[in-house]
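Quarterly update from the structural biology core.
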Amino acid sequence: MQKLASLALAAALLAAPGLQTMAATPPNALVVAQNIDDMVSIDPAQAYEFSSGEYVANTYDQLVQYDAADTTLLAPGLATEWEIDGAAKSITFTLREGVTFHSGNPLRPEDVVYSFRRVVALNKAPAFILTQLGWNESNMDEMVTVENGQIVVRYQGDFAPSFVMNVLASRPASIIDAELAKANEVDGDMGNAYLNRNSAGTGPFKLRTYRPAEMLIMDANPDYFGGAPSMDSIIIRHVGEAATQRLLLQSGDVDIAMNLTPDQVSGMQNNANIRVETYPQAAVHFLSFNQKAEVLTQEALWEAARYLVDYNGMVDSFLKGQMEVHQAFWPEGFPGSVTDTPYSYNPEQARAILEEHGVELPIRVTLDVINSAPFTDMAQALQSTFAPAGVHFDILPGTGAQVITKYRARTHEAMLLYWGPDFMDPHSNAKAFSYNSDNSDDNYQSTTTWRNGWQPSDAMNEMTMAALSEQDADQRLAMYEQLQREVQEHSPIVIMFQAAKQVAMRDNVQGFVNGAISDYVFYRLVEK
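Predicted structure, tokenized:
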């Protein structure tokens, strides 16, 4: 009866059309206010957005994974042990016994084989993370096999084993319930439509309700191999306005507010019932110019743009506490990152560069931006600092899903967006920012280079792939440092900031984990 009453209270909270004063959220449920309108898909074979990454992290597992207990340590997941054979380019995994999916079906080696083959066959946005191991539809029968009850994963390429292991710990390497997916297949979609409404994992939570840009509710998996979560439910309310998130938190209607502005965070410092935690993030924020728009193909414009961003002005004001100036594609805090910042706001130098190279002015450009803080504020700041140099931005706000979908279709002109590593290896970002060997429209790539219609030089492409196979660890990092400097100086992508996430929560919330990327946001250890 107590549980039913708590769920009824939660339902009333979610259904409320306006703000209501409530004594507290249900004791057995964590209620989160968050902007989740960036979600395009929640199927782990397709999910490629920040919010959907958080969802996958809490409902699915991989063979090896970065766990809530320590997000910096690659630990056993659905595999308890493994043996790496570098000469044979193979890794043999022993599956954990006694694990069941949310459906009650037992975890089998066949589920692992099906999950990997499914990602390759569907070929959705994140599929490239796995196919870079040399996997394709025609060779998957040989690349992932079951031998003596163990999973044998093979790869093609001279990769460091750590790179392969990080790939297998990534989001699309999540293991799904093959029987459930097959039972819900429609027109050969391998259960894709079904998994965009339901979960089919082994994770600590199971999806109960998902209504895009409205709410997402997950219920605890009491049989989770890592221990049952303390919270019976995680209720994520889509709240796009940061001011509304703050009011909900202050009134006790939510336990956590995920997207407050620095001013709102500062205003909570004297609230005894609320605390703010700051979590370093791996996401880098950038301004990019689509090379399919001829007016944006002039390298002098790219160079001048780097001096038209008021980096410090933004981080010292409305971005304070949320971002730091960072101008390289690999985030600070990870080996191989370039941390010097050679560019600063200098409109006189920018105008001199444009004049020296005969750039015809003025230039008018549409700038796509997510319609929420701090992105709209950043867009307005860029609009203000670029205009005196004769570069005028017409800001086009949209939901996260709208902006990202347009970006993937290469139909934008300028884009204000962010990028987080798909897995914790510098190649993850290097391939996104410094590699594109085929810029044709029908060669879709989940990279910033392809999406901006930019094909780097042959030398840059070759170095990106050479760094991937470099066996000497120090030399490998040096190559990535050189690539970062090349992108800094010679690309239509202006990297500006590295994110830091400030999360406000009620003082009774303990155990929330927010790692460096969205895949490491965990609710399993939360207590109230």
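The chain has a mean pLDDT of 93.
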